[in-house]
From TrEMBL:
The keyword Iron-sulfur does not apply. Keywords: Protein transport, Repeat, Transport. Gene3D superfamilies: Importin-alpha, importin-beta-binding domain, Leucine-rich Repeat Variant. It comes from Hamiltosporidium tvaerminnensis. Residues 1-26 are annotated as: Disordered. Belongs to the importin alpha family. Residues 1-43 form the IBB domain. This is Importin subunit alpha. InterPro entries: ARM-like, ARM-type_fold, Arm_3, Armadillo, Importin-a_IBB, Importin-a_IBB_sf, Importin_alpha.
Amino acid sequence: MFENKTVEARRKQREEQQVELRQQRREDLLNKKRSMVSKDTAPQIANLKEMKSKVLSNDPNIVFQGVFEFRTVLSVEKSPPIQAVIDSGLVPRFVELLSTSCNIYQDPSTDLTTNTRLESAWVLTNISSGTTEQTSHVVDCGAIPLLLEMINEPSSELIDQGIWALGNIAGDSEAMRDSIINSNATPTILSFISDLLHSKDHLKILRNATWLLSNLNRGRNPPPPLPHMKSCIPVISLLTTHTDPEVVTDSFWAASYVCDADISTTDLILSTEIPNRAILLLKNIINKLSNTDSTSSYNDNSLYKIAMHSISPVIRMLGNILTGTDEQTNYLLDMEILTIFKDLLILYQEPSKQSRLRKEICWSISNITAGTEKQVERVFESKIIPILIDILNYSELYVRIEACYAITNSLSYCNTRYEHLEILLENNFLESLKDLLMVVSNLVEVQVNILNGFKMALEGCRAKYKKYGNNPVANRMEEIGLVGVIEELQDSGDASVSDKAYNIIVEYFNGEEI
């Protein structure tokens, strides 16, 4: 009953509970995918036939006008006519127009040629902001090699639009991501970013390139190729030290994806300065919010904006590391991660982010309490348990559930560490779990987890008080009416809930066996 949680078990828990977080990040990515110039609703393409004839013309000026018109209708905010453009059969033409070798270009160096290529890339960027099928159509028409070639263009606008289009493709799905990686894009993109890091110009391009790099490392079904991720890590590490908040934020998203993919790549992340940078940023926030030690190196004003902007991916990366091996978890524990988590739970009160941040931190702590006995002991030593129980009482439901997992996981060793139970009892954890149990009737997994927690607490207490015939946990459960709640769960429509409730009543409260 008190078995240690394996890495696989941690990952399973993480996958089941992280769907909402992944969906939110997906929405964030989608919001920046389309390059918009208008907030109008897309008009019907009444003159589609005329526009199409312009794009297919042999006159460069007419072609430019046609491509410009298509880009305009695709750049509206609401319901752009992506499918109508695809159905027109023009995507191969837009791809063809990316290349300077297209036969309509008399001189590749003219502004007309550059502008036509730019507008064509913009069209493909916006088509790639659509569904997977629509993005796939752009790829199938051969856009990736030509978009990659744009990275070496002298025109910064062409470079930026090419990167934007590639970022949309990579951000669509694992298959689209791999279509770029398999085009031998990684060395080109990494070399380009490395060059940009030595330049003070082109910040907008660096932001988009970092976003592209994060998308090229995102996804676990399947994860990106291991050689690709390994080659990206040194550049990601450099990007986390940049002075621009957006660059740092997307670089930490990239690091979090790499840690989410493979234990060996997590080790590589830990061998860089990325963890130290993460801790530096979080300590900067804590020192600013606590208004203490103004001379500390962690109280740098220039870091505060960066730290506040990047806090979500920083916490996610640390949480992903904590799902790894015991050695990886110990690495962060030795960096005082629990003290940092405790301070953030107390001090961080940004209204738009507080609940989500608390959810992430509680999830991270639940992965520590799912670890070894020594790791669980460090959680209790950190004095974070009362804060977790407070969150379990008063936060939004989705945050309370994560705090619940952190608490129930910590019971795994209470048969040998009764002092853990004493701390939990002093902070009324049974009352808190009872209150949560009564509002999660539609969440079977959470119900089962809470019942498992009760069983571990009862068994741990029985092991200590066996000779005295007294079980303080059982007594408290009866005093607060928790036994009655568990009795009612014997009638649950879900067998996993009813069976566990029945077993608790029979084994610990003299229930009648059926």
